[in-house]
Write a structure and sequence with these properties.
Chain B: It is a multi-pass membrane protein. The complex is a heterotrimer. By secondary structure, chain A is mainly α. Chain A is built from 12 helices and no strands. Chain A has a single domain, classed as MetI-like fold. Classes of the chains: A mainly alpha, B mainly alpha, C alpha/beta.
């Protein structure tokens, strides 16, 4: 019932609609696009190094003869998956930790929030940068886990403070006075009533994670070769951006488009989920 | 109050200690400073390498806990040890903090001030052209990661300079050491233009969104209506009553950003070749520089805790509702 | 010559929502016009439209003339010269109506400086004078305080000071006392009368409280669904209402001087402004409805003697001299079987013995630290016999909510004992506590907050059943509960947002009854509801009690509702019980000065009685529960203490009184060293003189 209303409001919101269309197109491009290209992303064309965009190689080639179109789309797939997974894990973690800390209070709260403080104090960039290249033999999933581990703390604080006010709501008290166990109350009454916040947060976390991955990969601390992501492509491209602009323009442009569309949806969701807003 | 401050200080000291120690252990167990010496031509005898590394407390043949103890003893007395090639970490840190400060101060302040102004304008003119323009621009800017933005700026300047035939805007480094006096000062300012733009554009966009949302929250509130019922013009009611109240959350963010700015500009520093704290973060990892990694972590942790304290203080100063009576 | 003339005012919000549909009235100098109506009737929107303070997307039509000058469509440059100068407004919630980051003094001085060419110092001085005028102690000091440092009553006084800063011709008061406790309300209304004398202004008084209007207004306008349905001199409206809605409204209010018998509710809910019925908007709820009512909306027509009525059967009502109880069906409530047994022989369902609950008082968001102790509940004793309703009354901050939480938690109290159905809460293990929860349930105040907005109401009502392991036929039981509280079982699929306030409260009651409890705790169950809806819920509670043999602990601040529903009443003040006893004893012969003041502060919906009543006004605000006065906690505000001799006072200062049984009565006790039973509700000024 409510989700239908939210969806209707979302579609009525211009920003969100554009964002939605753009995202669908981008995801479509990333996953369907490779079937139309002439080259696989692992192929190397030894006849054309660094050739500009043209008939054979739509988006040009790299310095080792890879087809930019195929490589960029491959990188985009990786970025999208990383973004989604990180957002899912970190928002889930934030919800659980924040709700438990806020609802239980006392020493549970103190221990959990102390952990949050510690993670906030640790420079995430540094820790991921040191660990992730050394997990070469491990999969990129490790990288996802690391990114997620360092991106949930602020949200969990927000969740905690909202839980503190929800805890005093009469329907939560009613559940307590019925004798319902506390963990059940958290999952039945607290977390669902934070869903607006969590949905918005998850959406914005997607774009945050995509940027985060690209930023780390930019310095070579993220996705490791031979695998590619938008970040690694931008890193290589930016070095030669003045001479061979296509190496930089395509991955950077797609990254910006991806982040922008997700952000637009996130902002539209905020409007649609907030009953006080006047859109 | 004294007791509270002491408790908070104690907790913060523990947090910093744990953070720095974790970073040290992580760096000391995974990094390999020996590599920098082993690959040399002509080859350096192992005994010499060992001696050098021992002198810097970087020898992987020494048990990690022993190295940690040596390091920790130094830190307690205010000595962060030696860099991978024997320089003083303390000296390096001092130099780099000043570089970062010179680079970031203007950008941070400018970003906040312009962002708040644009956000307020946007809120007052909600759904008008200027609001839409500011909104769309800030969305686009926020979607551009700083390393893309900085690269774009560098490319644009490169092309501009080439087109003009002379260097109008500098795009790399902090200053030209060959100049002196007034010329050097102007040259320094010139070097600041690009990094400042790349830093402040993002924060302008960020603060303008926050300030707009906060203003809109406040605009619908009763006290703005009261101010108008008194006979104030809408504009006066908005700027005096609404803006002042809506400034509190933005200022909190600002205080936090101000505290953490030293380590926050990694990309800008790297791309425009300023040797500040942010660049050190990347350099120290690439150089397997264990003691520097720990020192950066220590510094960053102190900055974050200081920033959160600063933002608490600022809120208390701006909002009488939380002020200590 | 009238100051303000409103003609055919309409307000339309986007989406075609007609909030106000043709309001006309005039206000003259020194006159008080009362506008009454329930929530959503358009009364507040009307006043905001007059001030030109509606959001831009509202379309306002008609005419608003101040001294013959048209205000609608006026340019902002001219409008700002009128606002705050000729017309001032007093808002309902004085906390949110002041800017939190500026001092009260600055905000009042600002109002002065907008319209008068005076310097900053002079304006500040004027602000202090104004604060003094509205009775704020130490105005010099208090002018430098921030809004959150004021109590609700003080803030509303400051609001009045700001409104009269420029000597306005017209004051619009939008529910000025709704957020306040009764004794504070009485003070603020007094200040408002002073302000009117001081400025000679006309007043538009908007409220849902028929008692306040009865005491203040010269003329009354009754609004329903965005339109006036009746208008006239106050006596006519109260004693000779000619529109069924007004008649029903007057019949549905519980009265503190009221007689026994069920209240007369108005069935149904006010229509949504987005979906008005054809014809008369009140027709669907009107017992006098005839087919013609659906044809067209009756206009507000003159009725003689300055009265206007919008009802096609008004003349018939006049002719037959009908009243609300003649027209509206009076519900029949089955008698209570349990109370036939004498109280002493019935089992005790709840016993509190010297219950204590203290909180640490924390201060500062940045430098959080303990600065003292809040003595929220400081030794209270009471008991409830089976089949009985005990009301716990008192103003905000008296500790009634804390008491209730202490009972509901079923945990060992900090001090004293809580015994529920013979089981001491300190001696319960986990299983026993859970079992006992089935017998002890609660209905909350805010029907909006009490139901999880993300659950269909069927699940909400089934939740306690499932929690207590009921597996079979949960759906059937839910349907039965819905029927019991007067809702349709088909509604189980819907979400709380789809119900009106009264219906939600019924859902809350159904949930509380699911486990067939013996003792029901009612936390202000009707205070958030409109009067016409409130009557229905009160009747339902009474009926359920009698049918199911329940006992109630009824927590409330509305003494009129309490008189109607309760058998016994305990009056709390600052964490202690001031007076306790059977309702008729406490109401007719209150012995504690606080109870006396409380009862005399409640406005009666009866203009003549209300205007001739003798009032006991209390001085100042409730002291902080963190720092209660020594000895008797009420002495700082006690009118009796003020009249005592020095020697007698010593006892009040040194010795804390405890509840002592009054010699003449069986069930009546008061915690006052100098308790003296007097009659206050109907006491008039004239009687005193005789």
């Amino acid at each position: 019932m409510r989700s239908k209303v939210v969806f209707r409001r979302l579609l009525r919101n211009n920003q969100a609609r554009y964002g939605f269309v753009a995202l669908v197109l981008l995801v479509g491009l990333a996953y369907v696009g490779p079937f139309f290209g002439a080259y696989d992303w692992t192929d190397k064309d030894f006849l054309s190094f660094l050739s500009p965009p043209g008939g054979d190689h739509w988006w040009g080639t790299t310095s080792i003869g890879q087809d930019m179109y195929a490589v960029t789309l491959r990188g985009m797939q990786k970025s999208i998956i990383i973004g989604l997974l990180v957002a899912l894990i970190s928002t889930g973690l934030a919800a659980v930790v924040g709700a438990f800390a806020g609802y239980f209070g006392g020493w549970v709260d103190r221990v959990l929030m102390w952990g949050v403080d510690l993670l906030l104090v640790l420079p995430s960039f540094l820790v991921i940068a040191i660990i992730s290249p050394r997990l070469r033999e491990g999969t990129w999933l490790w990288f996802v886990a690391l990114l997620a581990a360092f991106s949930w703390m602020i949200t969990s604080r927000v969740v905690r403070s909202m839980t503190l006010s929800l805890r005093e709501r009469e329907y939560v008290l009613a559940a307590v006075y019925m004798g319902i166990p506390r963990w059940k109350i958290i999952f039945r009454h607290i977390v669902p009533n934070l869903s607006s916040l969590l949905i918005i947060d998850a959406t914005l976390n997607v774009s945050g994670a995509i940027i985060g991955e690209a930023a780390l990969s930019f310095f070579g601390f993220g996705i490791q070769p031979p695998d590619v992501s938008l970040g690694t492509l931008i890193a290589t491209g930016s070095g030669n951006a003045t001479g061979y602009p296509w190496l930089f323009a395509f991955p950077a442009g797609l990254l910006v488009a991806l982040v922008l569309s997700v952000n637009l949806i996130g902002d539209g969701l905020r409007d649609a989920l907030d009953p006080g807003s006047n859109t | 109050m004294g007791k509270y401050l002491l408790r908070r200080l104690a907790i913060n000291v523990i947090l910093v200690a744990i953070a720095a120690s974790l970073a040290y252990m992580l760096a000391a167990t995974t990094m390999n400073p020996r590599a920098a010496y082993e690959g040399r031509q002509p080859p350096v005898p192992e005994a010499v390498i060992d001696a050098t590394l021992d002198a810097y407390n970087l020898n992987d043949k020494t048990p990690v806990l022993v190295r940690y103890a040596t390091w920790a003893k130094g830190v307690v007395t205010g000595d962060f040890g030696k860099t991978w090639n024997g320089g003083s970490v303390n000296g390096e840190m001092g130099r780099r903090i000043m570089v970062s400060l010179r680079l970031l101060l203007i950008g941070t302040l400018l970003g906040f001030a312009l962002g708040v102004v644009l956000g307020a304008v946007s809120a007052v003119k909600q759904y008008k052209f200027s609001d839409r323009l500011i909104g769309v621009s800030s969305f686009v800017i926020m979607a551009i990661p700083v390393f893309v933005l900085a690269t774009l700026l560098a490319i644009a300047t490169y092309n501009l300079n080439r087109g003009l035939g002379f260097t109008l805007i500098e795009y790399t480094g902090e200053y030209n050491p060959r100049l002196s006096g007034w010329d050097q000062f102007v040259n320094r300012l010139n070097h600041l233009i690009l990094p400042t733009i790349s830093l402040s554009l993002g924060s302008i966009a960020f603060y303008s969104r926050i300030q707009r949302n906060m203003m809109l929250d406040v605009l619908g509130q009763d006290f703005v209506r009261t101010a108008m019922a008194k006979g104030l013009r809408r504009r006066t009611a908005l700027t005096k009553h609404a803006l002042r109240t809506a400034l509190i959350p933005s200022a909190t963010y600002f205080a936090f950003a101000f505290g953490t700015m030293f380590t926050g500009a990694t990309f800008t520093e790297k791309i425009f070749a300023w040797h500040g704290m942010g660049a050190w973060l990347v350099d120290s990892i690439n150089q397997n520089d264990v003691n520097s990694v720990a020192a950066v972590t220590f510094f960053a942790a102190v900055c974050i805790l200081f920033a959160s304290f600063l933002s608490d203080l600022l809120v208390a100063a701006l909002d009488p509702r939380v002020r200590v009576s | 010559m009238s100051i303000l003339q409103v003609k055919d005012l309409t307000v339309t919000f986007p989406g075609g929502i007609e909030a106000v549909r043709g309001v006309s009235y005039e206000v003259e100098r020194g006159e008080v016009l009362g506008i009454v109506g329930e929530s959503g009737s358009g009364k507040s929107v009307t006043s905001l439209a007059v001030m030109g303070l509606l959001p831009k997307n509202a379309v306002v039509d008609g005419s608003v003339q101040l001294h013959g000058q048209e205000l609608l469509g006026m340019k902002e440059d001219d409008l700002v010269k009128v606002r705050g100068k000729s017309i001032s407004m007093i808002f309902q919630d004085p906390l949110s109506a002041f800017t939190p980051v500026f001092t009260i003094g600055d905000q009042i001085a600002e109002a002065v400086r907008v319209h008068q060419k005076v310097g900053k110092d002079k304006a500040a001085k004027r602000a202090v004078e104004l604060l003094d005028l509205v009775g704020i102690p130490n105005p010099n000091l208090r002018a430098k305080a921030f809004p959150h440092e004021f109590s609700g009553g003080m803030r509303q006084r400051a609001m009045i000071a700001m409104a009269i800063a420029n000597d306005p011709d017209l004051l619009i008061c939008d529910e000025p006392t709704t957020a306040l406790d009764v004794t504070i309300q009485a003070q603020v209304l007094e200040v408002l009368k002073t302000a009117q004398q001081e400025t000679g202004a006309g007043i538009v008084m908007i409220t849902h409280d028929l008692g306040v209007i009865a005491g203040m207004a010269d003329r009354v306008l009754v609004m329903y669904a965005g339109r006036p349905v009746e208008q006239g001199p106050v006596e006519d409206i109260y004693y000779r209402p000619r529109m069924p809605y007004t008649m029903g409204l007057l019949a549905s209010i519980p009265r503190v001087d009221g007689e026994e018998g069920p209240l007369v509710p108005i069935d149904g809910n006010p229509p949504s402004p987005a979906a008005l019925p054809p014809g008369c908007p009140f027709a669907p709820r009107c017992p006098m409805k005839v087919d013609m009512c659906d044809d067209e909306e009756p206009p507000l027509t003159p009725f003689g003697g300055g009265r206007h009525v919008a009802c096609i059967r008004a003349h018939e009502i006049e002719h037959k001299n009908l009243t609300g109880t003649d027209v509206f069906p009076v519900p029949v409530i089955p008698p209570n079987e349990v109370v036939r047994v004498p109280r002493a022989e019935r089992p005790t369902v709840l016993e509190l013995d010297e219950l204590i609950r203290h909180y640490p008082l924390m201060k500062g968001a940045v430098f959080k630290r303990r600065v003292g102790t809040v003595y929220a509940v400081d030794g209270i004793s009471l008991d409830i016999a089976e089949g009985e309703t005990l009301a716990l009354v008192g103003e905000s901050g008296c500790g009634k909510t804390t008491t209730l939480q202490q009972i509901m938690q079923l945990q060992p109290p900090q001090g004293g004992r809580v015994v529920v159905l013979g089981r001491n809460s300190a001696e319960l293990d986990k299983a026993a506590r859970k079992a006992l929860r089935g017998d002890l349930q609660i209905v909350f105040q805010d029907p909006m907050a009490a139901l999880d907005p993300r659950m269909p109401i069927g699940d909400i009502i089934a939740e306690p059943l499932r929690a207590h392991g009921v597996k079979d036929d949960v759906r059937g039981k839910v349907a039965e509960l819905l029927r019991l509280v007067g809702l349709a079982p088909e509604h189980a699929e819907r979400y709380p947002q789809q119900f009106s306030g009264g219906q939600r409260q019924r859902i809350g009651i159904a949930r509380a009854l699911a486990l067939e409890p013996k003792l029901l705790v009612l936390d202000e169950p009707v205070s958030a509801l409109d009067v016409s809806i409130q009557a229905g819920v009160i009747n339902l509670l009474e009926e359920l009690k009698n049918r199911l043999g329940l006992s109630y602990l009824f927590v409330a601040h509305d003494l009129a509702v309490v008189r109607h529903l309760a058998d016994r009443v305990a009056v709390m003040y600052l964490g202690r019980i001031a007076e306790i006893g059977a309702v008729e004893n406490v109401y007719d012969r209150p012995a504690h000065p606080y109870t006396q003041a409380l009862l005399s502060a409640i406005p009666l919906p009866d203009p003549e009685m209300e205007r001739t009543r003798k009032r006991i006004l209390l001085e100042g605000d409730l002291p902080s529960p963190a720092d209660p006065p020594s000895g008797c906690r009420f002495r700082t505000r006690c009118p009796k203490f003020a009249r005592l001799s020095e020697a007698e006072r010593r006892r009040c200062v040194d010795e804390e009184p405890s509840v002592a049984r009054l010699t003449r009565a069986v069930d009546h006790g008061a915690a006052c060293h100098y308790a003296e039973e007097i009659e206050v509700i109907t006491a008039s000024e004239n009687q005193e003189e005789e």
